Fold this sequence. Notes:
There is one protein chain. This protein is α/β, with parallel strands linked by helices. The chain has a single domain (12-212), classed as Vaccinia Virus protein VP39 (Rossmann fold), CATH 3.40.50.150. 32% of the residues lie in helices and 25% in strands. The protein has helices at residues 12-23, 27-37, 72-82, 120-130, 147-158, 161-164, 174-180; strands spanning 42-47, 62-68, 89-92, 105-111, 131-142, 184-192, 204-211. The longest helix has 12 residues, at 12-23.
Amino acid sequence: MTQAAASRIDNPFFARIWPVVASHETEAVRALRRENLAGLSGRVLEVGAGVGTNFASYPATVGQVIAVEPEPRLAAQARVAAATAPVPVVVIGDTAEGFSDGEPFDAVVCSLVLCSVRDPVGVLRRLYGLLRPGGQLRYLEHVASGGGRGRWQRIADATLWPRLFGNCHTHRDTERAIVEAGFEVDSSRREWTLPIWAPLPVSELALGRARRP
């Protein structure tokens, strides 16, 4: 494996609160995480692994997971989770933009991460290049809502939300970015993971599968 110089993100506040948030995810979100990973096989790249929340749910058909996480405090916790994962997991302290590898992947997994990257289309094009032809992009992502919820998301994105939550932007058209990067979307649906009246701007998630033609 070849690797470019690691690009790290120093976000001590988010690194303190995200493990708490991840450990208190609703069962609805956990079920969507499991569905996002179901049926994977071969060699998988997970982008923005956080504390390794996905690791325990990878199916035995996966030969290896390379997980990139640029925040060093989160990466340290992800390595602990990797030690008890049911499949081999290697955690690398890098960004999707900085990561390089000489062997193509069978699948790329994105879970609640594309909302936080600075250039979604650029990152997705990078991931496209890391996949073999026919390889899958599995995504579970915060997405832009319509109506009053969408207006609230735009306000949140323009004020404190990205600063508090690791550059998370809640009002992104992530699926359009996936298509712009060259992927073909095979399936996609929206899910509400909190009551419609809940004040949080991250209640609506997109779960989908796309592929590199």
